[in-house]
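Good morning,

Attaching, inline, the backbone tokens for the sequence recovery test we're adding to the shared suite. The designed sequence is right after.
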């Protein structure tokens, strides 16, 4: 993936080196992913990187359009390989995130979830203002414990005052509960879908490996750079001489 000041060049070789093409075992493949599969002969499915590149570009362009309108993108990544990079990218973009367990009702019962977030924010304000000094040591300990628990569950949602316009999903498999709730609330879904998951609920599915660190990092770093700098992505093409030779 070569870069200059104006564009990001996305080539298939770099994508392959990052392992985007490595699908799940054939036995666990989802029939709806068939259009994105290049090879079904071996025990493991191989993803068509041309389709991955095409869908990745479309997904990023869609996210850029949301960001330019001032929209909110909630980044979700609860899988082992996705937690850290998902949180990092969300923070770089000043967007909310969920990297721990997805709490049922985050979208479908948003009012209740928002009350818990507001409670966390209130406790943090009290602590910062020195108001904890009026409590006993035991009471402060309990409040600190409560804050730690709330921060783990809701810390990434403190900036989310309304339902997001889009959710980014780092793994269709691990984050399927988030996808289901977003679908119920008509929230657009963008993210990585391996061959063992259903791409149907996704507005922009990106067929790629969602369990390998290199693959997820490659995709999310690209998303981050494109959204921060609003850079277009181009497909690297081979140049030819005037007589048609490469």
């Amino acid at each position: 993936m070569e870069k200059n000041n104006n564009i990001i060049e996305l080539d298939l070789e770099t994508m392959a080196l990052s392992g985007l093409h490595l699908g799940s075992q054939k036995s666990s493949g989802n029939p709806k992913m068939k259009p994105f599969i290049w090879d079904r002969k071996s025990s493991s499915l191989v993803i068509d990187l041309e389709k991955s590149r095409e869908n990745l570009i479309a997904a990023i362009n869609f996210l850029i359009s949301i960001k330019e309108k001032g929209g909110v993108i909630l980044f979700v990544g609860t899988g082992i390989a996705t937690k850290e990079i998902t949180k990092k990218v969300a923070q770089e973009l000043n967007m909310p995130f969920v990297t721990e367990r997805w709490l049922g009702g985050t979208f479908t019962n948003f009012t209740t979830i928002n009350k818990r977030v507001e409670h966390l924010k209130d406790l943090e304000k009290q602590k910062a203002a020195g108001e904890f000094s009026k409590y006993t040591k035991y009471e402060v300990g309990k409040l600190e414990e409560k804050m730690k628990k709330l921060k783990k569950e809701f810390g990434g949602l403190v900036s989310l005052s309304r339902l997001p316009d889009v959710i980014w999903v780092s793994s269709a498999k691990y984050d399927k509960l988030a996808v289901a709730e977003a679908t119920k609330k008509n929230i657009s879904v963008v993210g990585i879908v391996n061959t063992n998951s259903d791409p149907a609920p996704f507005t922009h599915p990106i067929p790629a490996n969602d369990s390998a660190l290199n693959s997820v990092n490659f995709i999310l770093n690209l998303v981050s750079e494109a959204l921060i700098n609003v850079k277009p992505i181009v497909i690297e093409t081979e140049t030819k001489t005037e007589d048609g030779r490469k």
